[in-house]
Amino acid sequence: MNTITQPKAAEMIRQSGGKLFSVEFIKRKDGSRRRMVARTGVRKGVTGEGPKFNPADHYLLTVHEFVTQPETTRDAASGQFIGGGNMATQFRSVPIDGIVRLRIAGTTYNVVPAPSGPCPF
Question: Which residues does 73 contact at the CB level (< 8 Å), separation at least 6?
Fold first, then answer.
């Protein structure tokens, strides 16, 4: 498996051209691992308000996450959900300094901290 630094991973995500990628990172709030499938460059659903802070000042990348949620209809006999699920989308922030794995363009990368310290963003 290939190894890249966190700043390189952030650059690859920014330059993904709106294509889907998978990212695994450590959440700042509680230290747990989080995985998501997301993309950049989404404009639909943007209200024009935006965040009240600059994400780059906090070493964050803003992405559009894709979440599969199960149908609410169950089969009476088996108790299983009917259908494949609804695709919900949400804007999320990914901490650059927490990225540990990235899968983009069919290649998986292990992500390590930059040897020079925190991200230069």
Answer: 81, 82, 83
